[in-house]
Amino acid sequence: MADYATLLRDHVTLTCRSVDRMFFQAYVPRLQSVGMVCQFLRWQRRYPIPSSAAFGKIGEAYVTEVHKFAKANGIPVRYFAKGEKKEEVARPYIDAAAAAGTSRVALIGIAQEKAVTWRSWPAKGQRGAGHPHMEWGRQMAFVNHFYFYVWDAEWGPAFWKTNAYAPFPVWIYLNGHAWAKRQLAKAGIGFTELDNGFASCEDPALLQRLCDRLGPGAVTSFFWRWQDRLPSPFTPGGPARRHPPASAREITPAHIAAFRLALTPASFNNTIHRLRTLVRQDDELPAETRRDICAGRLPRRPVPKIRAYTEQERQQILTAARADIRKARDRIHGARERQQGGRLLTRSLTAPLMASFWPE
């Protein structure tokens, strides 16, 4: 049966397989168990009684360091309100940093969010003792998180997120399409960009080669570059700062397919109706019209139940049709190929990344 590949095959202007969004979490292995937490506080930070109060002092010093870093570098600090769209707030600052053309922190955002933290309390019968034995456990708490929105010369816009509470995790967001745009710009290749993708490119073959080249090395270099520049709760050169391994929380493969559809207002209603009918496979269509659609031909007589849509209804239809077009791309490229490619791509990025960050 004909599908979108039949209707749109002559309108594809650009195709490209790439990695889209990537979300990583970095953590400190020496702060993942009670025994190693106590060793870290007692022997590396020299606290006589390892407790969460000691972590509190480390966190307060880190918060102070963040604000000093912002003031010294002229970086604006913004407290996000509950429900506020952080990306929309940060976008003007990132655009300004991109216009400057140098890697820099564009904005530091602060938001209260839920996190898992280490907490300690005196063991039973130890309260009031001169050197009490402490019990440890992980608890959920609403704490301030710091969003470092950066513009990187290699990656474009990205953000680095952390908080001032043990075990001091780090979350990193990167975008493979933004990385490819930066590589094209440095190579002097013209392209028309979308918000998250490409509409056209002067050298599609080079674009695909660049996307194929993206690997763990680029991610690793980004991590260490900003790890050295941003404030950290750990002492410079300390083992916790030298060995933060990372795990891939989410890697999204993408297959870009740019279409050029020359639709006049007169043909808009009929085209949208036919495209949506294909996905839903409306059985109420006349047999002759259904055969024409299945064969990829325009119907020889108007599709029934067509009426003029208002501009508001037209926008609603377009919004709903986007989901249908995504289904069409899956049909074009094959669900099996897409799933296998996504798994292989995820493994190829994650395994070397873990090996690069894991301490020996």
Write structural notes for this entry.
By secondary structure, this protein is α+β, with helices and mostly antiparallel strands. Among the domains are: 4-11 and 264-342, no CATH class; 28-126 and 133-168, no CATH class. It has helices at 4-8, 34-44, 52-73, 86-100, 176-187, 204-213, 216-229, 239-242, 265-280, 287-294, 311-333, 335-357, and strands at 12-26, 77-79, 104-122, 134-152, 156-163, 170-175, 191-194, 197-201, 246-259. It has a seven-stranded mixed β-sheet with strand order 2-3-4-5-6-1-9. Strands 7-8 form a two-stranded antiparallel ribbon. It is elongated, with a radius of gyration of 27 Å. The protein starts with a helix and ends with a helix. The model is unreliable at 279-283, 303-307 and 335-360 (pLDDT under 50).
Summarize the SSE layout with pairings.
Blueprint: H1 4-8, E1 12-26, H2 34-44, H3 52-73, E2 77-79, H4 86-100, E3 104-122, E4 134-152, E5 156-163, E6 170-175, H5 176-187, E7 191-194, E8 197-201, H6 204-213, H7 216-229, H8 239-242, E9 246-259, H9 265-280, H10 287-294, H11 311-333, H12 335-357
Parallel strand pairs: 2-3
Antiparallel strand pairs: 1-6, 1-9, 3-4, 4-5, 5-6, 7-8
- Count the helices. How many? 12
Order of helical and strand elements? HEHHEHEEEEHEEHHHEHHHH
Tell me the strand percentage band: 25-35%
Quaternary state of this entry equals: single chain
First-residue to last-residue Cα separation: 56 Å
Biggest sheet record: 7 strands, mixed
Protein structure class: alpha+beta
Shape designation:
elongated
Which regions contain 5 or more consecutive residues with pLDDT less than 50? Answer: 279-283, 303-307, 335-360
* Strand arrangement across the biggest beta sheet: 2-3-4-5-6-1-9
Tell me the total number of β-strands: 9
Question: How big is the Rg?
Answer: 27 Å
Determine the fraction of residues in helical runs and give it as a percent range: 40-55%
Mean pLDDT: 76
